[in-house]
């Protein structure tokens, strides 16, 4: 585990360089691709989370300590497990100066709750029963059923509040309420951002400018940081960890966080058969994947990933499968494929660990008779095909929406880019609902144990490894901390509030 020391969380002002000189508060951030046009509520992966953090704002957000804090909401109250009240900050506006009111929040939440809009937070938002507003700054949300984790969905970066005229699944969101606005951009090269003069908390923004530069090649990103061309990079390749860790003046902050998995077209073809998916779960050597795709900087996964210390994480839940090619062959024969079959695996070359995972899986599955052909391209192509269900099996990265095991409801059933296509198992769905809505912890544990036994023989997905998600930056960058676990991708919430020392 290569974990570098994390810089102090205390914000360092422009004059804290020790030299008495003012330090330009400009952050140059080398990111792993060009941001896509922002869509309301849509999961656009790590780069999308960054743009949400810079340009948009929700009622709540995750802070650098992995705790929920207020954002557009001045305060909130969880009345019970199905009722929540929010009070907005006074005189809120969007970046174009138009008022942001409780009605905007109500409309946005209703949009996110509609499954037809494919919002990332639909699993939690669809439980909303009623939203009532009281003037421009107060609203009460009542759920159809208990959800003690509802605030985690509200804090998700994709649950930002959207103006009425941009609140559409087809519209591009260009006006937000976040701390920065785009001043200039050059396609394929980068963009420049400056503080939003209408932001509700301008004093918290020390940076005068953020320059995003696009480096789709992981080695090029690392080289740009080591040469001083950029101050910070996302997704340093595991193969570069040692290089970065030993470089003077560089901080590598890596944490076990997102998962790499196989998800399936469960609507048609061989992978629609639960026995075939179970066979895959036994056929893949996770240690092989971790070595081939992440230079060993990943932990093998044999069941649902839960928070460390979670009462729902048992020895059984963490070992639903093992590496057992002979058992995989038996399951394939039982499924009607004693000689195996040919299929295509969708992956992406833009992130090497995706393609390297696919190659490792290709090797392992060939041993049990499943012959995979790689369909590899850039991320936008992957997203397009994944959304359309135009694949048989695909490599899928990502992290749970929230730290609680109720994230599994969307992980299995959201029918989104990060899930299998058209997977259905009503018994499993009900067990997960029972786990979320139960009144006692004992009842929740029993319900989740029931769910995991179903997953053991009817896998909605096959999680392979938990990767070390990292950021690397100059030690002059102050105020950043990589949050461990599923919240690591939300660490970029801190980017707008960083400062630069000398």
Architecture overview:
It is built from 14 helices and 19 strands. The protein is α+β, with helices and mostly antiparallel strands. Strand 14 (about 340-350), helix 10 (about 350-365) and strand 15 (about 370-375) form a beta-alpha-beta unit. Helix 7 (about 275-285) runs antiparallel to helix 9 (about 325-335) and helix 13 (about 425-435) packs antiparallel against helix 14 (about 440-455). Pfam families: SBP_bac_5.
- Unreliable parts: 1-20
The percent range for helix content is: 25-40%
Strand content: 15-25%
Q: Report the strand count.
A: 19
Instruction: Give the N-terminus to C-terminus distance in angstroms.
Output: 30 Å
Q: Could you tell me the radius of gyration in angstroms?
A: 23 Å
Shape: globular
Largest sheet: 11 strands, mixed
Number of helices: 14
Q: SS-based structural class?
A: alpha+beta
How would you state the average pLDDT, rounded? Answer: 92
Pfam families: SBP_bac_5 (PF00496)
Protein name: Solute-binding protein family 5 domain-containing protein
Subcellular location: Cell envelope
Domain Solute-binding protein family: 67-415
